[in-house]
Each structure stands twice: as structure tokens, then as C-alpha cells.
Design goal:
- This protein is of the alpha/beta class and 637 residues long.
- The chain has 20 helices and 11 strands.
- Helix 1 packs antiparallel against helix 2, helix 1 runs parallel beside helix 14 and helix 12 packs antiparallel against helix 13.
- The longest helix has 59 residues.
- The radius of gyration is 31 Å and the shape is elongated.
- The structure holds guanosine-5'-triphosphate (GTP) and magnesium ion (MG).
Length: 637
Amino acid sequence: MSALLEDGIADYSRRRDNLVAGITAFADWLDRHHGMDAERNLRMIDLAEALRRDRLMLAFVAEYSRGKTELINALFFADFGQRLLPSDAGRTTMCPTEISHEEGHGPQLRLLPIETRLRTEPLAHFKLTPIEWSTISLDPDDPQQMHAALQKLAESQKVTKAEAEALGLYNPGSGDGALQEDAAGMVEIPAWRYAMINFPHPLLKAGLCILDTPGLNALGAEPELTLSSIPNAHAVFFLLATDTGVTKSDLEIWQHYVHRHINYHVAVLNKIDMLWDDLRGELAFRATLHKQLEETARILKLPEEQVFAVSAQKALVGKIREDADLITRSGIGSLESLLSEKIVPARREILFQGAITQIADQVNNERAILAARMREGLQSLRQLSDLSGKSKEMAAQLRTNLVKDKVRYDATAEQFKATRKAVQQHGDQLLDRLSENALHVMLEEARAAMGDSWTTKGLIRSMRGLSEQAIQRFNQAEKLSVAMQQYLLTACERFHKEHGLPRMAIPVLDLTSYRLRMDKLMQETQEFCSDPGNLLVEKHFMIRRFYTEVASETQKTFELSAREAKRWLSIALDPVIQRIRDYKQMLDERLQTLGKITDNVGGVQEQMTLVKDGIDKLRKQKAELDEIAKRFESLNA
Ligand SMILES: Nc1nc2c(ncn2[C@@H]2O[C@H](COP(=O)(O)OP(=O)(O)OP(=O)(O)O)[C@@H](O)[C@H]2O)c(=O)[nH]1
Ligand SMILES: [Mg+2]
């Protein structure tokens, strides 16, 4: 593994660990000073856990035989001194392969049998059902054993045309590498539908997850890849080969599955070693390569900086033989820096921004609350010192004024109950819009509308209907989210303007990324539905699968947005309510103090000591919190 890439990933995991440590420190602080707030504490643990489990998904997408697997071998697995994942001429990787590290499992290869395609459950369901998979242990100390076990990824089997059709895998004449009938009337199909490799490589342990995909036809056959895995990957490497240039099916993959991708994507022109020619020399090579890079950028409509030239094979060989010149010449360094300097940091940015805004907002809120309480304490102290040596009437006058303030404040606090109720009602409605149940009803209705026949036309109609209804529901949820945030902001503003409470930072609930995901999914569905090719009766199987995946992806998006909304509801109100209560308590305490003085129960000095002690305690709490805040600031640097 290159030092650069290793550093990039190490830095990423170090920062992530620091962030987790910061969150834990804050949770601990809350626990000590706010007593047992179990729910809030659990939320912190959740957040820390989510960060620890965060994955950076990198997908390799291309037509078959462009060198995806070879590049993955060269980038990540050259240390094993051999070609670990099977890469060979012709179609090799038969099924999508996810490579990552999950704690709690030993190194292993899990394979989902192709026959599961006969069933209607989406792939996501199988991923959660270990019993459906074949598992083979991997021994990282024995590269031979690993190599042999991983050959399974290239396994295929021969079935009759009818069987292939039933599995939705027979699609004569569409694109390169389509599964064809042989002389005996048999079709060669993949033995496995999906593979997951769990492996303790440092990069994978640091949260990198790699998705190796098969070529065009296999891509289309598994809608989860095209509707979910690829669009949701953090970065996509799209591969081309110098010897084939940009073919029709390369372009189809690019346009359909990669280019519209909102996340980061680059094109990698592989196999540049095929242009190396000792007789023509370096200059001629550079000129040819330059021309091909320009051409690629033009066809793909991509800035030239986003087109990389490498030789995955020579990079792998160079690394295994420790031949520095060959490694340099292979161009692999450019992709390694891209990963360590751009992709990993960009992901870190997003991850940190999300977590830091969540936690830093809360830390700052606590700091603001402490600062306000300290200010109020000092104010009481000043008032008390003004009173010392003065008449009791003066204290009585102060008390009368304070009672008036308190009455006004209590009225506003009472009104806040209505705000709280409105926010909660909006929240409930919002969650209802996005609830699993609501979606289930929608799906059932759609299913009933199309009847038991699952006819192509019926499916298309119901898919359109489903997508329209889903987007409508999402819109309603988004509107509710805006309204409930506005309610809370207005109420807080009132406390600030009318009673001088400091302005509070209200956390923001932003559903934009989910709306983009919905929009894209809907666009995808509409395009699929209006493609006349998909109306053919034989496509019935594909449509049904697509429908299942659209439903499952919509469900996922609803679920994730609902989770965000729930989280917001559970964190946005508490600090405001607490602040309102704190202020009320402060007013009560002051009234009590003044009462004691006017009633001759306590001396001014005695009261001042009490207030001073209170301020000291707050100061200590604040110092601890400042330390925690500093940790977050250093993370942001
Ligand atoms: N000359 C040369 N051959 C390469 C290079 N990279 C890959 N190959 C060869 O190209 C063939 C296909 O490589 P794979 O890595 O299997 O390609 P793939 O894109 O994973 O193909 P599928 O798994 O079938 O989708 C293999 O024989 C590789 O050795 C390269 O940089 N130069
Ligand atoms: Mg491959």
C-alpha cells in the first residue's frame, strides 16, 4: 500500500477517533452535571457508534474486462505478493463484490446463491439474513488459501435457456458480453448473485468499503446496484481501456449509471502499457496518450483533470516486484493521491460537518446556558451589594419590580407550551407521512391496483403511481419540517426580545439530501417507465424486480429521513425547555433572596456568599466544557 494512501486513511481514522472521544467526553460531562438524562446519553452513544461504523464507499464501475479488479488488486492488495482477486481476460468477476471490514467476524467470503433471484425480496433483505449465504473462511496469513477461495467470484454454471430466463438473466443481443446460448442450448450464468468479503486490511479497517461490479448486462440485472449502491457510493471510478477506447456499451454505462451520479466520479483510462513501445520511444507514447486522454474527456464531457491514465497491471507487477520505476510509470500514484488527498478528505469533511454541527451546537448551547447563568449570578451579586447598608424598603421595591417581571415571564413561558405542542404535532404528522406503515399502505394499494397478474402494463402504471405518491408524501413531510422549525425559532426570538434571554442556536433539520435522493429515484423510475423497450412482455421479470427495488429504496429514504426528523425532535426542544426553566428558577431564587432580606431572615452578606458559591461551581463546569469545545475546534482545523 502506498505511504500516501496509508497516511490519508490513517489521518481519517485518527480524526474520527478524536471526534468519537470528544463526543464521549461531552456525554460524560452531561451525565455529571445534568444527572441521568438517559435518552440524551443514548443519542450520544448512537452518534459515536454511527461514526465508528461510518464507511467510505468506493465503487468501480465499467464494462467487463476493463481492469476494475486488477486496479483494486493494485491499489489495495499488492502487499499479498500476488493477484488476490481473480482478474482475467474476458468476463471474470461474475457477481457484484463488496469488500470491507466488519468487526466481530473473522476474515471471510460470503456468497449469495444466484437462485435467490427467483424470490421477490430485495437484495437488502438478503444482506440482513446470514443464513441465505455460503460462507468460506479466509486466512490472511496464507495468500494461497485466500487466492483459491476468492476464485469463487469468477464461478459460473450452465443452465438451460428457460432456467436462465426464469432467473431474469437471459437477454439475447443486448450489449457486449450478454449471456448467449451455446451450441447445446445452454446458457452460462453466474453461480452467485452477490459476494461480500470481510477482511482486516488497514484501509478497510479505517472505514473504506470497495464495490467491484461486473459489466453492463450484469449491472442492469441487479437494480439495487443501479438504484442504490452506485448512486449512494461516495466516489465512483469509471474504467476504460486504451485498446478498446470508448465503446457504445462503455458510453451506455457512463451515461446511465455514472455521469448522473451526484457524488464524486472520475474516469480511469487503463492499460496504458499497451501504448508503450520501445521502438517509438517515450515522446511518441506521451503524444498518443495525450490524444487519447483528450478524446476520452471530450466524449465523456468531463474536465481533463478528471481523467486519469494508469496501467493497473504494471502497477500490481511493480509493487509485487518492488520496482519503483515501473510503479511510477504505471501512473497509479495519481489515483492514490486522488484517494488520499481528495476523496478521503472530502468524505471526512462531510462526516465531520455532520457530527460537529450536531455536537458542537449542543456544546455551544450548554456553554451559552452556563454563560447566561453566570451573568445572572453576577447580576444578583451586584444587586445584593447595592443593597448592603441600604434600607429594607429598597429591597421591597426591587422585589415588587421583580414580581412584575416574573408574571410577564410566566405568561410567555405558558405560551411556550402551545409552541411545544404545535412542534410536537407537526413532528408527529411528519413522522406519519414518512412512516413505514404509510408506505406499506401505498405499496399495497399499488399492488391491488395492478391485480394479481403482475402484467407489464399494470406494473408500469403502478410504479408511476407509486413514485408520484411517494414524492407527494415526501413534499408534505418537508413542508411540515420547515413549519415546525419556524414555530420554535419564533418562540425563542420572543424570549430573547421580551425577556432578554440570549439567542439560542436551534439545530437545523435539513432533508435536502433525501429529497435529492427521492428526486433522482423518481427520475430513474419515470425514465424506466417511459422507455418503450421496457414495455415488451419479456421484460416483465425485470420490471417486477425494478419495482421491488424502487419500493425498497423509497422505503430506505423514508426511513432515513424519519430517523433524522426523530432525532431533531428529540434534541431541539430539550435545551429550549431547560433554558426556560433555568430562567424561571433564577427569578424564583432572586425573589427568595430578596424576601429573606426584607423579612430579616438572612443578611445581605450571607446571601452574597451563597450566590458566589453558585457562580464558582458554574465556572468550574464551564472550564471543563471549554476544554471539550477546544477538542472540537481542533478537529475543525
Ligand atoms: N495490458 C494490460 N492488461 C490489463 C491491465 N489491467 C487489466 N488487464 C488485463 O485485462 C483483463 C481484465 O482485467 P480484469 O481486472 O479482470 O477486468 P474487470 O474490469 O474486472 O473485468 P470483469 O471482472 O470481467 O468485469 C485481465 O486479463 C487483466 O490482466 C493493464 O493495465 N494492462
Ligand atoms: Mg473484475
